[in-house]
UniProtKB/TrEMBL annotation, chain B:
An example Gene Ontology biological process: protein repair
Domain Ferric oxidoreductase: 47-160
Protein name as annotated: Protein-methionine-sulfoxide reductase heme-binding subunit MsrQ
Presence of keyword Lyase: no
Keyword Transmembrane tagged: yes
Organism per entry: Bowmanella dokdonensis
Length: 272, 208
């Protein structure tokens, strides 16, 4: 179902990439089931055409994008990012996409805009977990996420339309998803239909479900444990099976130190 | 209905084959990286849920025996119980070897700090004690204490259920189904399980 994209390739990296087969078969996307392989197994008939993505709220210039526009909103480039899941595993993934800031600037945020709210498609016919409590993990759908405006405008924050040089497979959030590499994976919302600028902190799905376990910020932080497991270390998923020696220290902000100024003066233990 | 000697041997052979064969297959696939994106998580889930399945199956034998008035079902109980511990052993061993990769200090911290791991560890220790005293020799030697020790299977099963539902992120449907199954199996034994409670209640009321 995927097709190749034209993009500017990333520079060589010393990081070992997670093999494509693992990136597209190990997913948390409860709309298609809660087991890691469910999204791959259940999402293959997902229709991404036609698609509508709307950017509105506190902006001068609301934007509507159709499927084809998603790939023309900005020049596509490859970004190789570490992805750290809140469950203490991680991957290294070559995304293809563009900076979210590029799109937001086109919409011209009003000076009153402080936050950005994101929303996944709600379509229970295509996403059976959305109205089936046996499949959907007890979440209220649609899935929603949010960022502070300065986080959303940070050059590391991208909207991804592809990985490994091709369009996104449905299980990875086709046709367009967020990638915020210094936050736990659940912040990087998939299959987005709406981006809304607001003046209030928007609700976020996992925070609503268990506020003591998942905060609004969800910055990767080895010093703040999940109440039920440690976040100090992680298992890096690359190639190799059970005996792959892949346990490494988790780094503050997932190693993306350049975002630290966004949080200067904030108590990260309280704003987890 | 009555099983012949050979039917029992055959059924037991089948249990051995399934329990050992399945584990071998899964570990072989995990070791050779053919078990999805995260083979570590895959074996942890597989061994955990298999241990619970076998535990529930072993608790099904005596209700079956009563229902069909067929005492032979009891002859499978110990084997199923031992395989429940076999999978629980693999579960903990995989956690230490492949998840924590032998970081012992981390293991100790996890057992003390994480309630769901504390609970799982407690269940594991009970199952260990039952496994070590599962021989007929131990049964003869311990006489009446043997039965009271092996009644600990019920708190162990409850701890396993708690460990399971506590470990999931939000998808509690499957753990709830398991808890319902366990509740039904414990329901068959409600007289036995309530006896100590009743005894205490009677003692309290008669002393007034």
């Amino acid at each position: 179902q995927t097709r190749s994209l034209e993009y500017q390739a990333a520079n060589q990296t010393e990081q070992v990439l997670t093999p494509e087969t693992k990136v597209i078969s190990h997913n948390n996307f409860y709309e298609f089931g809660t087991d890691k392989t469910d999204p791959r197994d259940n999402a293959q008939d997902f229709q991404v055409q036609p698609w509508k993505l709307r950017i509105d709220g506190l902006v001068e210039q609301p934007i509507n994008l159709d499927y084809d526009d998603l790939f023309k909103a900005a020049p596509l480039e490859e970004r190789i990012y570490r992805l750290r899941c809140v469950e203490a595993w991680s991957m290294v993934i070559p995304w293809v996409g563009f900076e979210l800031a590029t799109l937001l600037k086109k919409a011209k945020p009003l000076s009153s805009a402080r936050y950005v709210a994101f929303e996944t498609l709600y379509d229970p016919k295509q996403m059976p977990g959305q109205n089936n409590p046996f499949m959907g993990g007890g979440i209220d759908y649609p899935y929603v996420e949010g960022l502070r405006l300065d986080e959303a405008m940070h050059p590391l924050t991208i909207l991804s339309v592809g990985l490994y040089g091709k369009t996104l497979p449905p299980q990875n959030g086709a046709p367009i998803r967020l990638v915020v590499p210094w936050k736990y994976g659940f912040k990087s919302i998939k299959s987005i239909v709406r981006i809304r600028l607001t003046d209030k902190q928007p609700p976020t799905t996992w925070n609503q479900l268990a506020a003591n376990e998942y905060g609004f910020y969800a910055n990767v932080n080895p010093n703040v444990d999940h109440p039920r497991w440690s976040q100090a270390r992680e298992r890096r998923i690359t190639k190799g099976g059970l005996f792959a020696d892949n346990r490494i220290d988790t780094q503050l902000f997932n190693g993306y130190d350049e975002v630290a100024p966004l949080y200067s003066g904030m108590d990260l233990k309280r704003h987890y | 209905m009555r099983f012949s000697h050979w039917q029992i041997v055959l059924l037991k052979g089948l249990i051995h084959l399934l329990c050992l064969g399945w584990a071998t297959l899964v570990y072989w696939r995990a070791a050779s990286d053919q078990l999805g994106g995260d083979p570590v998580e895959a074996v942890l889930h597989f061994t955990g849920i298999s241990a619970f399945n076998l535990l529930l199956l072993s608790l099904t034998m005596s209700p079956l025996a009563k229902m069909f008035k067929q005492g032979q079902f009891i002859r499978f109980r110990r084997l199923l119980g031992l395989y429940a511990f076999f999978y629980a052993f693999l579960h903990l061993a995989s956690f230490i070897l492949f998840e924590l990769q032998l970081e012992w200090r981390m293991l100790l911290a996890e057992i003390i700090e994480r309630p769901y791991i504390t609970v799982g560890m407690a269940a594991w220790l009970i199952l260990l004690a039952l496994t070590l005293t599962s021989t007929q020799a131990a049964q003869r030697k311990m006489v009446r204490r043997w039965q009271s020790l092996h009644n600990w299977i019920y708190p162990a099963a409850a701890l396993v259920a708690l460990h399971y539902i506590w470990s999931v992120k939000s998808d509690i449907v499957q753990p709830l189904i398991y808890i319902a199954m366990l509740a039904i199996l414990l329901g068959f034994r409600k007289d036995k399980l309530l006896r100590p409670v009743k005894r205490r209640y009677r003692a309290l009321t008669s002393s007034d």
